[in-house]
Structure formats: C-alpha cells, structure tokens
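Example (one chain per record):
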Amino acid sequence: MNKIIRTIRLIEKQVSTLKIPWVSRESERRDPYRVLISCILSLRTKDGTTAEASSRLFKVVASPQEMVKLSTARLERLIYPVGFYRNKARFILEISRGIIDNFRERVPDNLEDLLKLKGVGRKTANLVLGLGYGIPAICVDTHVHRISNRLGWVNTKTPHHTEEALKRLIPSAYWIRLNTVLVAFGQNICLPISPYCSRCLIDSLCRKQRVERWR
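Predicted structure:
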C-alpha cells in the first residue's frame, strides 16, 4: 500500500472519534451555498463560534435571494462574533449578489467562476467544489499545508504549491476528504506548536519537519 494512503487511513482512524470541522458537518446537507457561506464565516474563527453563527444565520436565510434582502447591520448581528464580522457581512452580501447577477442564482461549480466572486479564494473555492458538489478538489488551509510539510509529503512554501504537489501524490478518490481529516487531526493531535506525538498513530511515519516546541 502507498505510504501516503496508509498514513491517511491511520489519521482517519485517529480522528474517527473526534468532532469534524463545522463546514464538513454542514456539507452533509449537500447545499453548495451553505458550504460557501459557512466557509467564509470560518476564516480566522474558532469552529464552535462558526457553528453557532452559521446556525443563527441559516435559521433566517437559506439562499442568495433571501440573503440580499438582509440589511448589512442585521447580517452583522446574526454572524457576530466571528472574526472580522463586518468585513464578512459585506463579502457575503456581495457574493450573494454576484451569484444572482452573474450565475443565474446558482453557486458556480467550477474553480474559475468561483474565484470571480469577491472574497472567495482557492481554499474556499476548492471546499465548495469538494464538499458542496462532490467534485474532486484539494482544499489546502493552514492545517493541510503544515501537516503535509511536517510529514514530508511535500516541501512547499505556499498553500497553492502544496495543493499542486498533493494532486500529483494523492489519488483523486482521497482529495475531498483530505481537508476534513487533516483539519480535525491538526486541531486535536498535530498542533502547530508542541504536537502530541506520543499519542499519534502515525508518529513512526512522520519526518517531523519544521516541528516547533515550547522551550
């Protein structure tokens, strides 16, 4: 078995009892718009805060058409206290108007068009493709970038370079779930500083590149 695939399966085993990221749980509804908005809310925000804000918001609106009817002030109140909530409220309204005006009220299902929406970067776009539409895509956030380098799978400096390198290394069947697995792993075991190597199932498979520890 390919070493990387073996490692992914062991990580999946380790995180099977842990809470997966909110956006991944939200994707079970198979609604690309909710995945998109949840991802925007999650940026630089703790997962529990994202979950609460998303739940409040989606009790009021469920589509771009409903979203643009909200005032900026009300949207801010609904999503507070996510990080940069004022900027995110503005982006969410602009994204929703863009979907209505330019994409026939439907979230785009390709990377090029998703990136045309103001405030949507590659991470968010790939998450929408994978979790929202089931289209193979690798979403590289800070956890995926850090862990892929730490394990020695890649030696890259930017998330975009990590994405391209992982596409060459990992079969497409694993692309969609890679972010969910590595984010849960990165939040609970493979921490940015002083990771819990002693309780990690892949300790013997890890090169421990760039591992920082408290001194």
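Caption: The chain is about 60% helix and 0% strand.
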